[in-house]
Each structure stands twice: as C-alpha cells, then as structure tokens.
Amino acid sequence: xxxxxxxxxxxxxxxxxxxxxxxxxxxxxxxxxxxxxxxxxxxxxxxxxxxxxxxxxxxxxxxxxxxxxxxxxxxxxxxxxxxxxxxxxxxxxxxxxxxxxxxxxxxxxxxxxxxxxxxxxxxxxxxxxxxxxxxxxxxxxxxxxxxxxxxxxxxxxxxxxxxxxxxxxxxxxxxxxxxxxxxxxxxxxxxxxxxxxxxxxxxxxxxxxxxxxxxxxxxxxxxxxxxxxxxxxxxxxxxxxxxxxxxxxxxxxxxxxxxxxxxxxxxxxxxxxxxxxxxxxxxxxxxxxxxxxxxxxxxxxxxxxxxxxxxxxxxxxxxxxxxxxxxxxxxxxx
Length: 334
Prior knowledge:
globular, disordered N terminus, 8-stranded antiparallel β-barrel
C-alpha cells in the first residue's frame, strides 16, 4: 500500500489580480494554479496549498473555500456527468480537509470552510485530498475546481484546478468487504423539529435503491453505494441526503445493527452526523428535541433510526439548530 502523500505549493494573490474597470478594488479571476495528484485507487493522497496575501498593509478576507458546484461529483465509473440525476449515487473523490491561518484551524464541513482572515503578508494553508474509487486509464485524469472566494480588499474567485490520476487500485476497492446483507427499503419517515419552522412528518415508500452492509465477524461495514438516497422536504425545497463517501464501521450480532457515527451529506454542502442503529436515538438540539426507536432484525424485518442536530449552516436558513430523525424500515432480500 502506498503511504499518504503530503505536498504543498504556494500561490501569491497578486499573481491573479486584474485591475477593476474604472478603478476600485483589484479583482481576482480565473485559474491561478494546477495541483496534480497520483495515488492508488482507495488510497488517500493529500496536498497542502499555501495562498499568500502579498499586501503588506491590508488584511484579506476569504469568504469561503469550497469546490465549484458540480465539479466534484463522479459516477460509479469515475465520470463527471454534465447534469446530476436524482436518485443516482455520486462520489466526491476530492475533499477539503482543513484551512489554517496562523493559529486558527478550521475543519471543513461538507467540503467547505468559511470566513478566514489573512493578515498583511500572511499565508492561508488549505489541506486537500484525493481518494478515488476507480482507476484512471492512460492519460485520463479526474479533476475538479477549488474556489477561494475573496471579499475585500481583493474581490472575486481564485480557482485552483485539482487533477488526480490513479493507475492502479487496491484489491476490493470500491466494493463493501465481507458477507453482504441486502434489504429492500419499505418506508422512510423523516421528522424535523425546530422552533422557527413547522415541518410536517414526511413518509416515503417509493425508494428503489437498496440498503446493504458487509459483515466480518461481529463487525459491520457500510459505504456510500450501500445506502439509499433519502428525500427530505424543507421550507426551502426538496433535497436528498446521501451517505458521505467513506466506509463507516459498526457492529452486527445477527440481529442488532449499530454504526456509532455516520455522516450524511446534502448538496455536498451540509453535513449531519449521528448514530445509525436498531436501538434508539435521542437528539437534544438548541431549537428542538426528537427521539426514535428502531427494531432489530427478526423474521426478515428491521428498522434503523438515525438522529442528529442540524448544523449552523446558512443554507438551512430557519432550520439551523433544529433536530432531525429518520426511521428506515427494511425487508431482507437475501
């Protein structure tokens, strides 16, 4: 197995600055650099990108660091579709790990870090990773665009293209290991409690994707492709929640199943973390409290429950700080 790769390069903000029309704040535009990765599929490679504020007098505000929407979604064959299809499973091969300025370190949430200030002459360090699930062939590569959104005094979006190649793959890469337990999804019930919004209980019975997990002894393993996309109606519109693109480990004793901490992602920008279990969950959030009880596998039937606090993310608007639980009713198919 290859060791994780850690490399860095430095970008100066001034190199991409363009004079604003008619004067005013300098504008940032276009691709400032290209970062190349090479690894084995299912082995994470990391790079550290350093961006320097070359202004010796003014601090630079960075409003956000994230991927250009739609450029970090790959299908099961490693292709990036022009449009995303509802119900399909997509993988994020690239990841924003963390952003650092001086002693301030912010871990990325949903591949996004917001509000960093670079002091005059200061450096912002962005740690990114590449962990593909399929190989690349010949001269082909996976790529995405990292946006660094500047909001004063320099304005605009600096883009860094990330390119990844994976000529080989680990054995079993892209598949869940162990004996697979497969289930049909009979019903999903979503409950959201928030003092600032009234969200009706939602029930869905037409999910065609299956739920499955691998079993090795008393260990349970689940990956993104094993978990169905869960539809959720919010005051802002309908969205889908998907398991994040990694393998989560839990326990299974033949009846009771539990994953102590799994992460679900919405739009690649909102992440909720909680327990997925056949026992019970209770969520006490700033703006609401919810609980749910599952049931262990018996006579081919099982009910999983998941619970989490909704994060402080502006995309959630009035649902920030609320509680969410999901009940997933399943029937065994093997």
